[in-house]
Structures are given as structure tokens and as C-alpha cells.
Design a protein that fits this description.
4-stranded antiparallel beta sheet; 7 helices; globular; trehalose-phosphatase activity; binds the ligand O=P(O)(O)OC[C@H]1O[C@H](O[C@H]2O[C@H](CO)[C@@H](O)[C@H](O)[C@H]2O)[C@H](O)[C@@H](O)[C@@H]1O; HAD-SF_hydro_IIB; EC 3.1.3.12; Rossmann fold; 249 residues; Alpha-Beta Plaits; alpha/beta
Length: 249
């Protein structure tokens, strides 16, 4: 791991949400975002010519809710949906999740500790409140996957997620980087989870900076301890980018 270099106004910043901008909570809706985060992100985006985006497994609508009133460029559902900086939406075709939902709903109904998140193009089966049920959850998701060959299984933090094979955080970052205001900038990606590794690989292959937030194996060359450390870095980055250099005073 090496020390983070100072940011410059030529960066594009990409931020994961859960475990990165916000601490992990007992339930997906129990997450809280520090009160000054929307304003901080808005100011930082301003210093970067708006080249700042959220790249998350959640639907973009949920990110808008947590960061309200701020609406940033965003990739949601692991890249299955994307709102570009010009406000245009890009969505992969919705998979036929109806084929597998009844069996997964039945599993969750039989075990109140489990939680099923039904997204437009993905399904997340959470077992944070019932960790002993990880194995049956894996069996159920593996069986479901056999009916949906265009979907892939990912293991997140106490969650098993099924998302379109064509969707990924690396591809989402590449898509942003083909468009203004991201194009031509040095990409920085901050994430905490195995689902962020594809984005880490992508930005490092492009000469950018990958930052793992928290513990765990990673291909990222840089690390911050936790979401609080990221928030401190964001505040420092804003100060660095908005303080005139001595030469320009
Ligand atoms: O890509 P991310 O922004 O990191 O989103 C990944 C998944 O995060 C959420 O689940 C995780 O966070 C929850 C709240 O802290 C926690 O309760 C859960 O155990 C974690 O797995 C979210 O619910 C998923 O939809 C995201 O895909």
C-alpha cells in the first residue's frame, strides 16, 4: 500500500456508497449519511468541473434519497442503470427475475431474519440478521442462477447478489470516462467491497488511483481505514483544490 498522492483539479472522483460514504448498518434502510456530506460532495464536484459520480449496487433513486437534495451522476445496480452527467439515463434490458422470485420470497418468508431486496435488474438476498443461514441462501441463489444464465452471482457484505453479467462497476466507470466532464481526467475510485474490485482494476489500468476503504484483500494500491477517514480525505481534498496556490495569489 502506498500513500495517497494529493488530488488535482484534473481528477475524476468515483465513490461507492455502502461501507464507503456511509457506515454499514444492520439494515439497508437504516443507513445514515453524515449531515454535511451532500454539501461537501456538491462543493467537491464544483471544484472538479462536476466530474464526481456515485457507483453503487443500490438503485440510483436510493442514492438520491440519501444525498437529497443533491443529485449526482451515478451508476446504480452495479452499473445496470446509469445517469450520465447530462442527465440522460442508460439502462440494460431488465432480466426476467419473475422466474426466480417466488422461490426466493418463499425462503425469506420462512426465515424472518433474511431480507430480499428486489431491484429492477438485480436481487440481493441479505443474511446479516441470520448469518447461520448463509449456506441455504447460497444454495437458493445458485439454483435461481441456473434459470437465468445471463446473470452472475456476487458475494458482498453478508449479502448474495445476482446482477446481469453485462453490468459491472468497471464498465460503468469506463462509460463515464467516455463522456464530459469525466473524459480525459485521471480516475480515482473509492470502494470497500469485493464488488468494487472491477472498478479498482479499471482505474489502475487507466493510470488512475484505486482506494480500498476498510480492511480486506484488494488489488487497490491505496487504503483508507473507514468511511470517517474517507470523509476527512474529502474535506482535505476540497480545501486543497479550492485554496489558491501561492503563485496565483
Ligand atoms: O455498491 P455499494 O454502494 O457498496 O452497495 C452494495 C450493497 O450495499 C447494501 O448492502 C450492504 O449495506 C447494508 C447497509 O449498510 C447492509 O445492511 C448490508 O448487509 C450490506 O450488504 C445494499 O443493501 C445493497 O443493495 C447494495 O448492493
Amino acid at each position: 500500500m502506498s500513500e495517497l498522492p494529493p488530488p488535482s483539479t484534473a481528477c475524476a472522483v468515483f465513490l461507492d456508497f455502502d461501507g464507503t460514504l456511509a457506515d454499514i448498518a444492520a439494515h439497508p434502510q437504516a443507513v445514515t449519511v453524515h449531515a454535511d456530506i451532500p454539501s461537501l460532495l456538491d462543493q467537491l464536484a464544483g471544484a472538479l468541473d462536476r466530474a464526481l459520480a456515485i457507483v453503487t449496487g443500490r438503485p440510483i433513486a436510493e442514492i438520491d434519497h440519501f444525498l437529497s437534495p443533491l443529485q449526482l451522476p451515478a451508476a446504480g445496480v452495479h452499473g445496470a442503470e446509469r445517469r450520465a452527467a447530462d442527465g440522460r439515463w442508460h439502462r440494460l434490458p431488465a432480466p426476467k427475475l419473475d422466474k426466480v422470485l417466488p422461490a426466493l420470497r418463499a425462503l425469506v418468508a420462512a426465515h424472518p431474519g433474511l431480507l430480499l431486496e428486489e431491484k429492477s435488474s438485480a436481487i440481493a438476498l441479505h443474511y446479516r440478521q441470520a448469518p447461520s443461514l448463509e449456506a441455504p441462501c447460497l444454495t437458493a441463489m445458485t439454483e435461481a442462477l441456473q434459470q437465468l444464465p445471463d446473470m452472475a452471482l456476487m458475494r458482498g457484505k453478508q449479502v448474495l447478489e445476482m446482477k446481469p453479467r453485462a453490468a459491472g462497476k468497471g464498465a460503468a466507470v469506463r462509460a463515464f470516462l467516455e463522456e464530459a466532464p469525466f473524459q480525459g481526467r485521471c480516475p480515482w475510485f473509492f470502494g470497500d467491497d469485493v464488488t468494487d474490485e472491477a472498478a479498482f482494476e479499471t482505474v489502475q489500468a487507466l493510470g488512475g488511483i484505486a482506494v480500498k476503504v476498510g480492511a480486506g484483500d484488494t488489488c487497490a494500491h491505496h487504503r483508507l481505514g473507514d468511511p470517517a477517514a474517507l470523509q476527512a480525505w474529502l474535506r482535505q481534498a476540497l480545501a486543497t483544490l479550492t485554496t489558491p496556490s501561492p503563485a496565483s495569489r
